[in-house]
Amino acid sequence: MHDGPHDRSLDDRHEHPHARAHSHPHARPRSGHNVARDPVQWQTPHLPTGHVEEAIAPHERDLDLVEASFVESFMRCSDATSFLRLAGIPFVGIAANGRQLHLLRVEINDVTDVGSALPLLGGEGMRYDPLPEKLVSRRRHLSFVYLDGAQVVLLGFAEVRMLAGL
Question: For the chain: N or C, fewer Cβ within 10 A?
């Protein structure tokens, strides 16, 4: 560790008169304020077990964050039908199997995990522990309820976006 004028955070380097020439052994290279760059991490939707990961198109990146924004806005909108049209959610769509789907309902469920259960070794019984507040998790589930003419079909946000519109 250094003691002296060079012991500053990297964000303060612009105050150094010789910051561009300075090469600190522990400093990570950084781009300037005006340099365009891709975000460090993309959030991708959870994929089913056994799914082969594919390259994600730029418009599908951060889909979980887009879904969270959809839920937040949908709950406050004054006209649900217009909001769904604006969001591009099809009222009538064609599924991958060719069946025609008709939108009946949008469901938003709040889930709060307040306990943990673990099986005991040997498979008999379980251990239950209430979670302390800092480990309690809260999340919302969004589902679109469609009717295919014979049965009700629940689709997630990503699945609805893949429906072919009419």
Answer: N
Say how far residue 122 (Cα) sits from the centre of its chain.
37
- Percentage of the chain modeled with pLDDT above 70: 63
DSSP annotation of 165 reads E
Neighbours of 107 (CB within 10 A): 11
Going from the C-alpha of 98 to that of each of 53, 148, 151, the distances in angstroms are 25, 10, 15
pLDDT of residue 96: 86
Residue 56 is classified by DSSP as P
The reported pLDDT for the residue numbered 152 is 95
Buried b (16+ CB within 10 A) or exposed e, 123-137: eeeeeeeeeeeeeee
Determine the longest span between alpha carbons in the chain, in angstroms: 75
Residue 62: closest CA among 80, 92, 41: 41
More confident residue, 85 or 13: 85
The three-state secondary structure class of 111 is strand
> In the chain, pLDDT over 90 holds for what percent of residues?
48
- Mean of the pLDDT values across residues 64-76? 90
